[in-house]
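Blinded run. Sample ID left blank on purpose so nobody reads anything into the name before looking at the predicted structure. Input follows.
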Amino acid sequence: MPVSRIAYADLPEPVRYAIEEITGPPDVLEPASGGLNSAVAATLSSVKGAYFVKALPTDHRWVWTQVREAEVAPHVQAVAPPLVGRVVEAGWDANVFRAVEGHQADYTPGSPDLPLVADLLAQLGKIPCPEITLRRAEQRLSAFADAGDLHYFAGDALLHTDLNNANVIVGKDRARIVDWGWATRGAAWLDAAYWIIWLIAAGHAPGAAERWAARIPAWRAAPPAGVQAFAKVNAQLWAEIGGEHPDVWTCRLVVASEAWRRKQTAQAGSAGRA
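Blinded prediction complete.
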């Protein structure tokens, strides 16, 4: 379920004071237009620069994602905006990042952003997984996967797992990835697999989406049976998220994940008959 959004100005004064000790008093406040996981999400611009603030109440069931993102941040500065401060005050938990210039990635066929996103995921694949507490991919997928398939998802790579184009910011010559609250430890090829579903949702045929994923070295080492299992799991996951009456946004992912599952199932059948 989405988190109810409030304005930055509606934060308690002690919270805003602590944030502005980091950012300086804001001259411009720009609320984020997207995102589902933060009660406050806004860009603050001051004489010290531009900052992005995201916050949740400390009693919210997702507040652990704030902690996770703060713990991951020092390890992903090569691919993500730096965390410059953290505030836990007056019942609120806030992370303060340097804002980066750019636009949300365009995943549609022919977009000039696609090579930059592929390069980003290849670079992410080179970052060692830090020794911090992370959920494991096989745990996260266990509700939908056959027990015998879970080993395909296990590994020691650092994964982002939410390749929503709104989480990828494309600048002049590179892309960065934000919103690390769902960072996970698992098989190195999984982020490329997550990207495939978003590419299909943006208009790519499943095979074309896989060709973009093939630009990422880890994907080229993915076991075919593991890919088939993952496609099946994600179709089931999105079908459950969508329920009987999915909204337009969710419906895109339900349809995309099912299209990829069918493609992978047909491919497995052809291989079995060969």
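Unblinding after everyone has recorded impressions. The chain has a mean pLDDT of 95.
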